[in-house]
Specification:
The complex is a heterodimer of chains A (170) and B (176). Chain A has 170 residues and is α/β, with parallel strands linked by helices. Chain A has 2 domains: 1-44, no CATH class; 48-163, Rhodanese-like domain (Oxidized Rhodanese, domain 1), CATH 3.40.250.10. In chain A, 42% of the residues lie in helices and 18% in strands. Chain A is built from 6 helices and 8 strands. A 6-stranded mixed sheet of chain A has the order 1-2-7-6-3-5. In chain A, a hairpin with a 2-residue loop joins strand 1 (48-51) and strand 2. With 176 residues, chain B is mostly helical. Chain B has one domain (27-157). Chain B contains 7 helices and no strands. Chain B has helices at residues 2-8, 13-47, 49-58, 67-87, 91-114, 136-155, 162-171. Chain B is elongated. Classes of the chains: A alpha/beta (170), B mainly alpha (176). Chain A binds chain B through residues 13-14, 16-17, 19-21, 23-25, 27-29, 31-32, 39-45, 83, 122-125, 152-153, 156, and chain B through 46, 49-50, 53-55, 57-58, 60, 64-69, 71-77, 79-81, 84, 90, 92-94, 96-97, 100, 115, 117-119, 153.
Chain lengths: 170, 176
C-alpha cells in the first residue's frame, strides 16, 4: 500500500514537472512565432560566405577529404599553436588569425596564390578560419573553402592527421 | 520526516524542532540558490537564442538541425523552473526539472571533456560569463549543483512557499 502511494506520488511529481516543461516550452515557441526576426525551427548551415569579395564555400569533412592528397590543395590550420602542434590535418599549414600578417610571412612560401586553400578551426561556430580567409582574400587568394565542421570532425572521422610542426615531406 | 515522527511520538521537543527548522532553512537556501542560478542563466539565452544554438552545436551531441528548437525552448523551461523554485510554486516538480537539466548539462560537459572538445561551456549564454572552456571545474560544479537540486526534490515540504502561504490564508481567514 505504502509502495503504491509512493509510486503514485512519484508519478504525480513527474506529470506536474512535464506540464511545467511543456507550458514553458510553448512560451518560447509562441514568442519566436511573434518575433519580428524569428529563428528558423530547423537549423540549416550556410553553404557559402562572402569574405573580402570572395565567395568561400563551406564544406564538411567528407567533402574536404576528396581534396586531401590533391597537389593543388593546401589545408590551412587556423587554431592556436598548441593545438596545431598537438595534432592537425596531415600537411596543414599553420596560420592563425592572431598576428596573421607576421605569421603569413613564414607561411607564404607554402601557400601558392593559384592553389585551393581549405581552412579550418575548431568547429561550426569558430570564426578563426573566416578571419584568416578574409585576410587571404585581401591578398588576392580566390580559391578558398572553409571546412566548417572543424578539426574535431576530421579527427573524429579517423582521417589522416600529423603531430608537431609541418615537415617538408608532409 | 524522521524529526516529524519523533515529534508525534513525544521525542525531545526542542531538539526536534531545531533540527526541523535547520532542514527547512537549508532547503529554502538550496531552492533560492538553484532557482536564482537558473533565472540568471536563462536571461542571456532568451535574449540571444542564436548564440545559445551555436553553443549547443559546438558540443556535437545533438544533430545540428535540432539546435534552434532546443535554444528557443530550453531557456524558458530554465526561467520558469527557476522562478517557481524562488517563489515556492510547485517547488518539487520545478526541482525535478532543474535536476534533470543539470544532469543533462553534466553529461554534456563530461562528454566534451572526455572527447577533448576545446569549446566554451555556454552555461550562462554569454561567452564572458560562461566560465570559459569546459574542464574539471565545470564537472565538479555541475555535480554539486545536481546534488543540491536533488536535495530539494527529496526534502522540500513546501515551507516558505508562496503556495503554502496562499493556501493557509484561504483555509484560515485572518481573524478581525
Amino acid at each position: 500500500m505504502a509502495g503504491q502511494n509512493g509510486m503514485r506520488s512519484v508519478f504525480s511529481l513527474v506529470v506536474r514537472a512535464a506540464i511545467i516543461f511543456i507550458c514553458a516550452s510553448l512560451v518560447g515557441v509562441a514568442l519566436n512565432m511573434a518575433s519580428s526576426r524569428p529563428l528558423p525551427w530547423v537549423y540549416e548551415p550556410a553553404s557559402q560566405l562572402e569574405l573580402s569579395g570572395v565567395t568561400v564555400p563551406l564544406i564538411d569533412e567528407r567533402e574536404a577529404r576528396k581534396f586531401f592528397g590533391d597537389p593543388g590543395t593546401v589545408f590551412v590550420d587556423t587554431r592556436n599553436e598548441a593545438d596545431y602542434l598537438s595534432s592537425h590535418v596531415e600537411g596543414a599549414v599553420f596560420l592563425p588569425p592572431t598576428d596573421v600578417e607576421e605569421k603569413f610571412v613564414a607561411a607564404e612560401a607554402l601557400l601558392p596564390r593559384e592553389s585551393r586553400l581549405i581552412l579550418y578551426c575548431y568547429g561550426p561556430e569558430c570564426d578563426m578560419a573566416e578571419e584568416v580567409a578574409r585576410f587571404l582574400g585581401q591578398l588576392g587568394y580566390r580559391n578558398m573553402m572553409i571546412m566548417s565542421a572543424g578539426y574535431g570532425a576530421w579527427e573524429k572521422a579517423g582521417l589522416p592527421v600529423a603531430r608537431g610542426k609541418r615537415s617538408r615531406n608532409e | 520526516m524522521i524529526a516529524r515522527i519523533k515529534h508525534r511520538r513525544g521525542g525531545p521537543l526542542p531538539r526536534v524542532q531545531s533540527e526541523d527548522i535547520s532542514v527547512k532553512y537549508t532547503i529554502l537556501a538550496a531552492r533560492l540558490f538553484i532557482g536564482g542560478l537558473f533565472v540568471y542563466a536563462s536571461v542571456y539565452k532568451i535574449m540571444d537564442p542564436a548564440e545559445f544554438a551555436g553553443a549547443i552545436r559546438n558540443y556535437l551531441i545533438l544533430p545540428a538541425a535540432w539546435s534552434n528548437v532546443v535554444a528557443l525552448t530550453l531557456p524558458w523551461v530554465e526561467l520558469v523552473a527557476g522562478a517557481f523554485l524562488v517563489l515556492g510554486i510547485q517547488s518539487r516538480p520545478a526541482a525535478v526539472l532543474t535536476t534533470g537539466m543539470l544532469t543533462v548539462f553534466l553529461a554534456a560537459v563530461v562528454y566534451a571533456y572526455a572527447t577533448g572538445l576545446d569549446i566554451d561551456c555556454g552555461c550562462f549564454g554569454s561567452p564572458e560569463s560562461s566560465g570559459g572552456r569546459v574542464g574539471v571545474a565545470h564537472i565538479v560544479r555541475d555535480l554539486a549543483l545536481v546534488l543540491v537540486s536533488f536535495a530539494v526534490v527529496l526534502w522540500d515540504r513546501g515551507d516558505f512557499a508562496l503556495e503554502t502561504i496562499f493556501h493557509s490564508k484561504v483555509a484560515s481567514p485572518s481573524s478581525p
